[in-house]
Fold this sequence. Notes:
The complex is a heterodimer of chains A (207) and B (290). With 207 residues, chain A is α/β, with parallel strands linked by helices. Chain A has seven helices and nine strands. Chain A has helices at 10-14, 33-44, 54-65, 99-109, 122-130, 143-147, 188-204, and strands at 2-5, 21-30, 69-71, 76-78, 86-89, 113-116, 134-137, 150-157, 167-181. The model of chain A has no long low-confidence stretch (mean pLDDT 97). Helices cover 37% and strands 21% of the residues of chain B. Chain B is globular and about 55 Å long. Chain B starts with a helix and ends with a strand. The interface between A and B is large, with 52 and 55 residues.
Amino acid sequence: MHTLTMPLSDEAIRSLRVGDSVALNGVMVTGRDTVHKWMVDTFIMKTRPPQGDDLEVYEAIKPLLAGSVIYHCGPVVSGLDTKQYRFVAAGPTTSIREEPYQGMVMEHFNIKGVIGKGGMGPKTLKACQEVPGVYLHAIGGAASLIAQTVTRVLGVYKYDFGVPEAMWVIEVKDFPAVVTMDSHGDSLHAVVEAYSKTVLQDLFTKA
Amino acid sequence: MQDLTESILELIRLASTDLPPDVEAKLRQSVEQEEPGSAARNALETILKNVELSRRNSTPICQDTGTPIFYVYHPEGWSTRKLRQQIEDAVVQATKKSYLRPNSVDSITGKNSGNNLGGSYFPSVHFEEVEGDTLTIELMLKGGGCENVGAQYSLPNDALGAGRDMAGVRKVVLDAVHQAQGQGCAPGILGVAIGGDRGTGYYSSKEVLYRKLDDHNSDPQLDALEGKLTEEANQLGIGPMGFGGKTTVLGTKITTLNRLPASFFVSVSYMCWAYRRRKMTVQDEQIQYS
């Protein structure tokens, strides 16, 4: 078990290998489909001009993301009326949808870790080697259990994206995950995909 | 007409927070099949801990409380308009109580309605009039991750060498499991509809998921295919969460529909391990949950 505290050093990242269990501590930010597209369109590819509070949010999240972790998660949050936010259920969402964006977002914000489920593809794996960074797999559906590791909700950006799509700034204690893509070019997902493909082809030759 | 809003709210709470016994039992069996200390076994153990915690604290098993899909089987004389209103009221209350995440998003503006309502398809409610005097409401919460890996094949499929027969059905279903990898939160449950049109195929592939995991198909040929597909899918080695392992699929349920001469669809709905489905019955104003 590797106990990690954000922000993460390059050395800490390079020491992680596929299969390692980690416990994360410190501050991370949630971000999923709408956030990744917004980041790339507005600040990286610049295909849309900043609007509303975009620039203000950009300046606020930059220091939070630098060296830290983005969590693919759309939580269930209580206290929405009073703004006394508490995470009730907060497991990972499927990461592959961010594959078109993730590498660019990691490079741009110097994000060292991506937490999600289901794994990601070659573009993200390349970014993991270059930034360097890791992909951390949390247990999909283990939402109540993971929510208990969220000790505080420090704030929220882009609430107008909706509760699941907003960027929630959270403090975590011993958040559990497994390294499934590392900074050395290894991916458990690529291995399992290739193996299952061989079995599938073998099954296809039988009745 | 009886007001069922409070009872439907309880149905939603149960579905979101209390995994059905047949699913939990299957997960417990699966743990024993994975190697001690493996990522697969750890994943299943974490899943079971979460199941217990969610039940104890009445919190959602998974944060993606999905599309609430209601199938209502009502005796003659019930107003489906009023029932839909009561279902919607219960859904709004369940969202306020954090049993459901606000999940209904306008596809053009991206705006989340905040209360899980939106148009006539959210929540998804199907009505059917039945004989007798028992009203039955079945609810399934199906998350987006597993919904995204559902697949529909039009046979013949040349690339897979799948023709219009049971051997072809087998190939495309196994292909769907392979394509899904761990992304639909394996171990999954497969709802398969053979035939129909594109709409009715998917509809039925979800409806068949209301069956119990350990039951048997009344058609011996389909029953055998269900067993074979589950067994072969588990040979793929995708495992819980796609970590590799023996447990890729917990079960397969198959139904058939008549088709057009020109069409032969196989529709696969992939349900995640968090197979949240609950049933309530109303008879003589007595309400029972299962």
